[in-house]
Amino acid sequence: MLKYQFDWAVVLSGKYFDWLVSGVKVTIQLSAVSIALAFLLGLFIAVMRMSKVRPVRWIAHGYLEFFRNTPLLVQIFFWYFGSYKILPMAVNNWLVSTNFEFASAVIALTIYTSAFIAEDIRSGVLSIPKEQMEAARSSGFSYIRSMQYIILPQAVRITIPPLIGQFLNLMKNSSLAMTIGVAELTYMARQVESYTFKGFEAFTAATVVYVAMSIIITVVVTWYSKTILSPLRAR
Amino acid sequence: MVLGLDFHVIWNNLTYFFIGRYPHGPLGGVGLTFYLAVVSCILSFFGGMILGLLAISRNRLIRYASEAVIQLVRGMPLLMVIFWMYFLYPALMGHVMPESQTVILALTIFTSAYMSQIVKAGIEGIPKGQTEAAISTGLTHRHTMLHIILPQALRNMIPSFVNQFVSLIKDTSLAFIVGVSELTHVATQINNRSLIYPTEIFLFIAVIYFIFCYAFTTLSRWLEKRLAWAKAI
């Protein structure tokens, strides 16, 4: 049926193997930097979203809705091709002096993911009983401090599984960075394919890496929920 | 002029953004985006239903096999699925498929895996007493599923299906990568032709996507509220 000659040595050794490995490295770098930034930004937006001041809440709400309901690819293109007209000159110069493709991908992935993370954090905070906040406020903590010391530490613990889920999505989404020339895993798999015509082998290798990472992450989340989260809930 | 942006480029290409070269050529732009999303949504509804039902089968082998397929697809980026279809299909079948069909196939496979989770959760959300009551009235397992469980479960799944449709609209933008002239592809074409208006063009299509997606997100929230209300009485 198939007249295809499999040749796994092509992708498992030599130059093309090194390409794939460097792709994996870039994927991990891109995901790690973006998830860290997205978490901080998402936390900030979530706190804004729950603010008492109405305009602040509206801004956060608008941010969430806009970035959640726009394709990531369009956002990547916007930051890569179109951001120079709206950013200050100094920022543009700095971005161009760094690795501009990588930086655009990080900006787009961070903003896109932060919108999802903010919602996860918010539902984590909403799951903390109101009495906790009331008790904190009546013992003299300000709103910000009650959030910081009482509510968020508990909420973050509950939010960890969905957050790890977001990290998984981010890692898969980072494949879109190939469209602007970031040499991550999917880009490299495609590169190997076009140099060697060994598409099966190259894509299988990339798929195995993605699926392996996602299985590891899923196992970690299940373990965390079972051994750490459910005893806490039961208490 | 806002922020020194010049939106004439949008105005001059408006029909191209919305319907491509149609009716003198193939459908493109927003029209094609919707065509891809709607067709893949209908197909993956059935795909998700089948996969979801297989994943709760009483036969352990079927259950494990379908779970493995679901996990595999969910572990992959959509872009990877599109590439697989793009290179695998011609190699297996010996003939090339039009790009838009490749994308529909990839979107269907990808979304079916996610839909199956909705179906599974929807069926598991129906109280066990319903199955027990149906079985003890003498219905077979198949009939219980078909006439008692699924009608109730499907109703509860509607909001999630609408959310999945929103994801599909966003995901169709990846069709750009294999050269299907949906909205994102049209935007890059116009950008390549006009060269100096990238900000305006990508801002514009972001807003277009946002309007459609937000409308459906709102619909799904409204449905969710209505269903909760219907259940409460």
Give the overall shape of chain A: flat
- Please state the average pLDDT score of chain B: 93
Poorly predicted regions of chain A are none
Say which CATH homologous superfamily of chain B is assigned: MetI-like
Task: Count the E strands of chain B.
Answer: 0
Percentage of residues in helical conformation of chain B: over 70%
Number of DSSP E strands of chain A: 0
CATH architecture of chain B: Orthogonal Bundle
Helix content of chain A: over 70%
Give unreliable regions of chain B as ranges: none
What's the tally of helices of chain B? 10
CATH class of chain B: Mainly Alpha
N-C termini distance of chain B? 53 Å
**Would you list the SSEs of chain A in sequence order as H and E?**
HHHHHHHHHH
**CATH-defined fold name of chain A:** MetI-like fold
Strand composition percent of chain A: under 5%
> Rg of chain A from C-alpha positions?
22 Å
- Number of discrete helical segments of chain A: 10
Radius of gyration of chain B: 21 Å
Q: How many individual domains of chain B?
A: 1
